[in-house]
Amino acid sequence: MAGHDLSPPPRPEACELCGRAAPLTRHHLIPRALHGKARYRRRFDRVERLTSILWVCHACHKHIHGVLGERELAEHYRSREALMRHPEIRAFVEWLSTKPPGFRPKRPSRRR
User: Fold this and answer.
1) 63, 67, 70, 103: which could form a disulfide with 31 (CB 3.0–4.6 Å)?
2) How does pLDDT run across 29-40, given as a tens digit for each residue?
3) This protein's superkingdom (predicted)?
4) Domain tally, the chain
């Protein structure tokens, strides 16, 4: 696959969900644990699997994975817009966006 740029999108100044200027992590819109599975290899090419990334703060990242399973993420929540349509994600992000950059939610966000 020479010639394809496999770099993640450039890191923004703030979380792509809550908008806070906090340390950011890469959220793979197609979870990395699924990259080797035949079903996802057929549906998404290597470039898409590796570069479909949202830069999010730790709190948003933890919340996403606490609310949604990996297959659910890959099947239905492969974009910022899709994530924001999920009522629990949207409510958390809207609440967190009012907090200062260093704020860390105390309650565990695990919901399974």
Assistant:
1) 70
2) 999 999 999 999
3) Bacteria
4) 1
Q: How far apart are CA 16 and CA 30, in angstroms?
A: 16
Strand partners, 25: 56
Residue 70 lies in a domain: yes
Q: Residue 32 is part of which domain span?
A: 24-98
Count of CB atoms situated within 10 Å of the CB of 110:
10
The residue-averaged pLDDT of 56-65 equals: 96
* List of long-range contacts for 100-109, beta carbons under 8 Å, 24+ apart: 100/20, 101/20, 101/21, 101/22, 102/22, 103/20, 103/59, 104/58, 104/59, 105/59, 105/63, 108/66, 109/59, 109/62, 109/63, 109/66, 109/67
Q: How would you label 46-84 residue by residue, b for 16+ Cβ within 10 Å and e otherwise?
A: eeebbbbbbbbbebbbbbbbebbebeebbeebbeeeebe
In a domain, 33, yes or no: yes
* CB neighbours of residue 30 within 10 Å: 21
